[in-house]
Amino acid sequence: MKFTTQKILVGAALAFSALVAVAAEPIKIGSVLSVTGPAAFLGDPELKTLQMYVEEINKKGGVLGRPLQLVHYDDGSDANKANGFAKRLIDDDKVDVLVGGTTTGSTMSMVPLVEKAGVPFISLAGAVVIIEPVKKFVFKTPHTDRMAAEKVFEDMKKRGLTKVALLSETSGFGQSGKKEAEGVAAKYGITLVANESYGPKDTDMSPQLTKIKGAAGVQAVFIIGLGQGPAIVTKNYKQLGMALPLYHAHGVASEEFIKLAGAAAEGVRLPASALLVADKLAASDAQKPIVVAYSKAFTEKWKTDVSAFGGHAYDGLMLAVDAIKRAGSTDKAKVRDAIEATKGYIGTGGVVNMSAKDHMGMELSAFRMLEIKNGDWTLVP
Question: Class of 145-272 per CATH?
Fold first, then answer.
């Protein structure tokens, strides 16, 4: 009888503990993503990733004994909407940390708000302007546009390509990328012999490409943009019979780009994260277990291909969760400090070592140079 009573008491205690855990105040992860609009093929996998891993973390007991709650809004690829939603997340939803900002434009519209409110913000956008100059509460997971330009020019140099045409989108990402490419070209012995631009909603870039085709001595073309625009450029490129080596920045690191560009994507090179070639990495690669596990989980749950952009969201969430654990609370100043102190985090983007001077924490070697062959990503030796 005593044993039975003891079992009942233990069972009651466990049930009470479970109720307390369920009733615990949630840790609110705020997010503004471009799930619709021109940048949808970036924002959609980002949202799917956050939803999937918040659910998984909660099944394992949450963080600090508290469940995670994802509060997200779709800015429709509109930076002005992103600003309004960020304000709502901070003032009304009272989020503990922000993971999001699909595009550079959306991210930069949110920066003044998070800095003023003192809310840790991990952006999923690419431009270096997000973290340079360093902003106290702002961090990012993707490689920068400067790194993309350097990785591309590094590969061009190996191939003896020195006269390059630049075609950049007029978006925040495109214009920041253009500036960075112009700034590092000379370092790699690259001369920009043509410099054109296109709008993110343009449906035909043939006029710009025709000018590039006629540029004196051009040996390769470098496109900097995101969303559907780069796929249209790639198709136009093929239609005009241009056979020069074609490079893109990391704004197209998704299977969706290959699907949209079709056969025209063959031979295209771009820098991207290891995630896109998870199954092709060496067994000794430190990132392999991480990217293989993410790829398997994402494809099984959503029945669709992975993209580098979903990987950026994974890294953003995991960096935030890790920081909250190390801070031992959701105190925003302590979480901010913990994010900045991140060392040796291995994610889908690379190995992250943050510091007071570097709020991204990845070296150029974190980028992999890829080439599209037979409709698939391959590693460039």
Answer: alpha beta
